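Subject: Interface between my chains keeps coming out wrong

I've been trying for a while to get a sensible model of this assembly. When I model each chain on its own everything looks fine, but I need the whole thing in one frame so I can look at the contacts. Pasting all components below, labels as-is. Any help appreciated, I'm running out of ideas.
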Amino acid sequence: MQIQINGEPREVEQNLSLANLVEVLNLKAEQIAIELNQKVVRRAQWNEILLQASDQIEIVHFVGGGCE
Amino acid sequence: MSGRQNIIQGMSTPVRAPAEKFEIGGRTFTSRLIIGTGKYRTFAEMKAAHRASGAEMVTVAVRRVPLDRSSESFLDHLDPSLTILPNTAGCYTAAEAIRTARLAREALGTELIKLEVIGDQTTLFPDNEQTLEAARELTREGFVVLPYFSDDLIMAKKLLDAGCPAVMPLAAPIGSGLGIQNPANLRIMREQLPDATIIVDAGVGTASDAAIAMELGADAVLMNTAIAEAQDPARMAEAMKLAIEAGRLAYLAGRMSKRLYASASSPLTGVVR
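Reply #2:
Try treating it as a single job with all components included. I did that and got this:
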């Protein structure tokens, strides 16, 4: 099925949890945050939440920056 | 030790910066310098500058994770003793800034947020209206909101009323290095809001600018480009640290009043004729 991650379409397997997605994408879980359809998902819920077709996911981390 | 050496030693006792603490939202700091983490040529250069600055708090930006390559984790390059202040840099609406703040809190587990809502790409001037709206909402949600805004007293009052524990007026456009463009506004803000925590954010170019901000009564200064774009960032970071201490001491000492004409320092009587 297709979902959007950070504005880009992406094919993922059915019944994938957010925790699985983090693994698939090879991300360092402790330094990221995830939004599902514009709502932040607490880390503790990553296991329970299963992705559905056309979900919009934002995954962010921190980068160097001061202002703007 | 001879008397003369004693005198000389007594004279060279270093003046210490006041040990007074600086507080934001229940956290106390000794350093009044807050610095950014952007624009450094290398991570090593950034780390050296952070060390030399003596800063205890650094600000970081929130961005989408790149999905096509394994990304370095930026936070691993920061000294673990530093307090991390995530920011909403790059946001142009209250809604974007609120989303970004919520993500930052989830990722870092901190309530601290440097709120920036930009109004225009060329000047990077803040959108004060959107900033106030975001500050109200984020404060309701329990964030410790440090807002970047125009150096305007009325706006400062509104942000403080909204529950911000400190306000961060700009001194000049972000990254411009122009220095304090409107010292009168900062003085007025200090005089009218004697109990507010005022952090000058953006526009400082070199050490004297930082000292002036502190002499005007700012409680702290936040900067990034002035250090990161210096030829030798670590050296500039140290200069900034000293300038901020000097400016703070001068502010606490209370400067002499200015007069137009000379006033002799030596006694006018007993001059050898």
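Reply #3:
Confirming on my end. The longest strand of chain B covers residues 57-64.
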